[in-house]
Structure formats: C-alpha cells, structure tokens
Amino acid sequence: MKHIYRIVILITSLGSVLFAHEPIKPIPQHLDYNKEKAELGKLLFVDPRLSSDGTVACVSCHSFDHGGADPRPVSIGVRGSKGCANAPTVYNSYFNFRQFWNGRAKDLKEQANGPIHNPVEMDMVPEKIEKYLKENKYYRSLFKKVFKNEPKYDYVLDAIAEFEKALFTPNCKFDQYLRNETKLSPKEAKGYRLFKMFGCITCHNGVNIGGNSFQKFGLIFSYEWKSDFPDRYAITKKPQDKNVYKVPTLRNIVLTSPYLHDGSAATLQEVLQKMSYHNLGFDLNKEEIDALVAFMKTLTGEVPKIIQKK
Description:
GO terms for molecular function: cytochrome-c peroxidase activity; electron transfer activity; heme binding; metal ion binding. This is Cytochrome c peroxidase. The chain contains 12 helices and 2 strands. It has 310 residues and is mainly α. It has 2 domains: 35-166, Orthogonal Bundle (Cytochrome Bc1 Complex, Chain D, domain 2), CATH 1.10.760.10; 173-298, Orthogonal Bundle (Cytochrome Bc1 Complex, Chain D, domain 2), CATH 1.10.760. A two-stranded antiparallel ribbon has the order 1-2.
C-alpha cells in the first residue's frame, strides 16, 4: 500500500513541478519598519518583568540562540508551568497569514497579547504592566519619544509587534539561488527536486516556505490526537479540524529543533520520517532523507540585523 501512495504522489506531483512557476519566493532583502519603535519592542521582548513572577520574557520561549524558537519540547512559563505545544520560531513570522499553531491571532500585535495573559505563560495583566513601565524613568522616556505619550499597554503590543516584524532573515543560500546568484550543490538540488516531487511543496511554499495555510497532520495515516493540542479544532469544534494546524515555516529549520506542534521530533531526520509516513503514506530511505536535509540546510538566512551584536 505504501508503494502505491508513493507512485500516485510522484505521478501527480511531477506534472505540477515541471510546468508550474517557481513555488518558493525569496524573502525581501530589505523591509521597512519603524526602527525606534522596534528597538523599544526589543527591550520589552527580553524583559521578564512583564510576567507575574518576573521570570519569563518573550525571549524565554523564542530564543535568539535557537533560531527564534524554543529548544524545549514545550515551553515553561511562570511558576514552572508547562505549556502544551512547542513554541514556533518568531523569525519571519511577519510573513505568516495567521499567528499561533491554530491561527487564532490575525497579526503580530494580537499574537503578542496572548502569552502575556496566558496563566501558564506570563500570567500578567495590562494594569500591572503599565504601572511598572510608568515607574521606570528610562521606559517612560522611550515611550514619550516613540509614542509621544505615557506608557500604555496597547503601545507595548505595538512595539513588540514592530520588533517581531524586524526579525526577518534574508539571503539564505536558497534565496540566492532563486535570484540566480549562486548554484545548489548536486545533493542540495536533488533534495529540492524530491521536495517538489513528493509533494512537500504543496504546503511549504511562498515567501515563508509555509505559514500560509492550514493543513491536517495525519492525512494518510492518522496521528494521535490530544484534547489540549492547539489545533483548529480548539477554535472551531469541528471534528474534521482535529490535528489541523498552520503549516510551519521551513526557513532556518536546522536551527529550530525539536519539531512538530508537540515537539516530538528531535531531529530533521525524525521529522521527515514522521511527515512522510503520516502525510505521504510511505517511508523515506536514507539517501532521500540526506538529500532533503541538504536542501533544508540552504534555508538558513542571515541573523536579523536588529539583534546582531554591534
């Protein structure tokens, strides 16, 4: 049966691959954003005093040393509380069509609001944040400079969102290839061909190589579902939305392990096997996995300028 799935996918994918335009687009090399507002957002992003016990900041679960993601299977919030999902990378999140695994936030500003209120993440209320910021002379001066006003919670979200917009990672090798500035190695090129022929490109496409659609995990062979998973079912309550998630970006994928919504895949090799089995219906061999990994290594971009050490 698995061989039949492989043949069907290869036949149906080959036609679209041969005659379609390039399905992946390079990230812009430059992105306009308000630098003063983004710098204020960076300070807020790394400040643990925005949490109820002063131990958790946005950066706690979106590490700059780990591609903007969390190296732990699930995030740890205030008072040691465990979350129910692996925190995805914040890098290039500006290019996602919705935010969070289940897309419950329409944009970065709405997304920033979620963890601050969540009792197992930062467990904070706007009034306490505003009080803290107003009592801090340095913060007061920055808000006055950027917003021409006293610190307000809405400004906090606005500044954090502007900082996250600035976390884009241009000029990965594959973007340079798309711009005809370099060539892929034979193994990298083979990995990209397989990526398209196996149908991975169906979900992982566009500027962010994902982040632009909802798809089911366990399309061919079902994946275990748990009631606390942050899937579309948590929002719609429709049975068909169980294990349906926003497709994650593949940019900087080699930096952001572990993988999947539950953090259950520790390596790229493991997540490739899981995805091919559950969503394609067959197992990949070592040669195929090695080629796909080689291709994915070309997706690592530059460190965002706003967090580069000066």
